[in-house]
Amino acid sequence: MPEVSTKPYLLRAIYEWCTDNGYTPHIAVVVDSSTRVPMQFVKNGEIVLNISFEATSGLKMENDNIHFSARFGGVSRDILIPVENVIAIYARENGQGMAFEAPVPATAEEAQQAPEQESSAPVLSSVPVSEPEKKPAEGSDKGDDDPEPPKKGGRPVLTRIK
């Protein structure tokens, strides 16, 4: 029996963390032919979906797929997302969550050459501390070159670092 990826377990854990803390869980997904989402909301081959209890009906986060019903423009749609296509899950309110390696689209030629090759496990990497959070070295008197402080309010933004 092939080993199951840790990714679906991590997705379920972050989802549970979000809901336990009153946050709104969102997932960022790479859209391809195996993804069933409303295409009018896809931008640059990706879509971000609110998967909170209030926004979905019948949410099932399985090892292979995530599926649920949601309303888009007042119309109920059935959504199907392969777990391998999820590139991030995070809380809308503070941006905390986890990002995953984006799936590499296999060409038909590559698929024929290595049909038994399984998808690789998700790769996690640390994110460098942003400039405003770094503490200045003691004795440095660069008051004029201080970066702008982060803006308050607004919507958090998830930044993918490659």
UniProtKB/TrEMBL annotation:
Residues 101-130 have a biased composition (Low complexity). Transmembrane segments: none annotated. Gene3D superfamilies: SspB-like. One of its GO terms (cellular component) is cytosol. GO terms for molecular function: peptidase activity. The keyword Cell membrane does not apply. Pfam families: SspB. Keywords: Hydrolase, Protease. This is ClpXP protease specificity-enhancing factor. It comes from Herbaspirillum aquaticum.
